[in-house]
Amino acid sequence: MQILEVCYKSGVKVVTIYAFSIENFKRPLHEVNALMEIAKIKLSQLCQHGELMDQYGASLRILGHRSLLRQDVLEAIEQATEMTRHNDKAILNVCFPYTSRDEITTAIRDIVSSSTIPQTSPPSPSPSDSSTSTSTSTSSGKTATPGLMDIESITEKTVTRHMFTSGCPPLDLLVRTSGVERLSDFMMWQCHQDTDIVFSDSLWPQFDIWKFLPILINWGVKRRKLEKEKGDVEVRGVGMGMGVGKGGGY
Amino acid sequence: MQILEVCYKSGVKVVTIYAFSIENFKRPLHEVNALMEIAKIKLSQLCQHGELMDQYGASLRILGHRSLLRQDVLEAIEQATEMTRHNDKAILNVCFPYTSRDEITTAIRDIVSSSTIPQTSPPSPSPSDSSTSTSTSTSSGKTATPGLMDIESITEKTVTRHMFTSGCPPLDLLVRTSGVERLSDFMMWQCHQDTDIVFSDSLWPQFDIWKFLPILINWGVKRRKLEKEKGDVEVRGVGMGMGVGKGGGY
């Protein structure tokens, strides 16, 4: 909460936290269940700190493959997001359950799906007229028949628009805790040309405001040096690869 | 060349070098032309060192958006790849001209394209029969009409198969030179759960075997510690974010 506060006070618009990886579902069931209980507690704590979210106008968003979650966890998510929905100045993204590859794969499925032209009663084309195009859709719901799609119209912007972080500003700073020097399938697409990556030796519960402040200040100094001719510099997005409690994240 | 040699001697199967970013085309024309000349020189040097490539059974692959290259550069590429085509024990990937986002976007286009069912004389379906599906293709070549596609069949494996690095082993170690702590749009998809990322302060021409060896050895020690119960450890893929000469890369 202190880290969030210093971020929003410094003008950071979006903070993204890696709470639970899809990979974690491979753990023993009792561990997964324990992590889900922790998630519910964290979400209810967030509700209790509603005034902090309101103070900075921050809304909560849960990014990830929600269909993998239990009904009671989904309800806790619904309650927490509903409570902050009116805030529109800043965003707290919580990746849960998430992997970057799943996000990109989901985006690809969405792009293919969105090209579908649903036609309940397709016209009967003349075989000699090759300039017309028809498509029909099956009733399974899982199989789509995409209609006319211009391949060239799929650009990097299309992909960005289909990410869970759609509409968020670029990621400026990515902090990876736990002493391992890996991205661990976190915000790979968002890690663009100018994203600074910082590895911290601290495990998440020990990664406190005093560990975070030097990273944020150092980023500001470096960026200011790089972009001094451009004038003002502000951190727009911060991503943190941090787990929920001891067992979370990765 | 020394770095390549130590990699192949240590059993690394694939080395990937970031030679030229698509972003570099935004530079002034005379700079781009100079970089292209350097690329041609490097490719011809590689041909002269053919015996090294043969010694380790390494074949050259150029990954990237080739249609952006000049005809004479394409010919130099063709000559160099042809010379090592018979080698099948190791791979030297040179990303040129490349960005990771372009690679992923290209993969998405390929996935959409590969779902196209070309039909020169499409059957005339009955409007009442919703279980059949037809598609026709236009003559422009740019617009495709994908046929029946099962969205659920698009998985992370599909995406991996459509990357330029398709068929390569997982990326174990990524070395980023030049003292900046960014991925700079290099192998974002390949940077999987277990890829170690190492930032080096050295600029590329100064990044020599004595800078590289400690990184490789350190990786081995760390990985052995992590996976000691699994037995033998070997580096399968190494990616290096290094530019061609002073102006290259990023």
TrEMBL record, chains A, B:
PROSITE patterns: UPP_SYNTHASE (PS01066). GO terms for cellular component: dehydrodolichyl diphosphate synthase complex; endoplasmic reticulum; lipid droplet; membrane. It comes from the Eukaryota. GO terms for molecular function: ditrans,polycis-polyprenyl diphosphate synthase [(2E,6E)-farnesyl diphosphate specific] activity. InterPro entries: UPP_synth-like (IPR001441), UPP_synth-like_CS (IPR018520), UPP_synth-like_sf (IPR036424). Its EC number is 2.5.1.-. One of its GO terms (biological process) is polyprenol biosynthetic process. Residues 127-146 have a biased composition (Low complexity). Keywords: Transferase. PANTHER family: DEHYDRODOLICHYL DIPHOSPHATE SYNTHASE COMPLEX SUBUNIT DHDDS, DEHYDRODOLICHYL DIPHOSPHATE SYNTHASE FAMILY MEMBER. This is Alkyl transferase. Pfam families: Prenyltransf (PF01255). It comes from Tuber borchii (White truffle). Residues 114-150 are annotated as: Disordered. Belongs to the UPP synthase family.
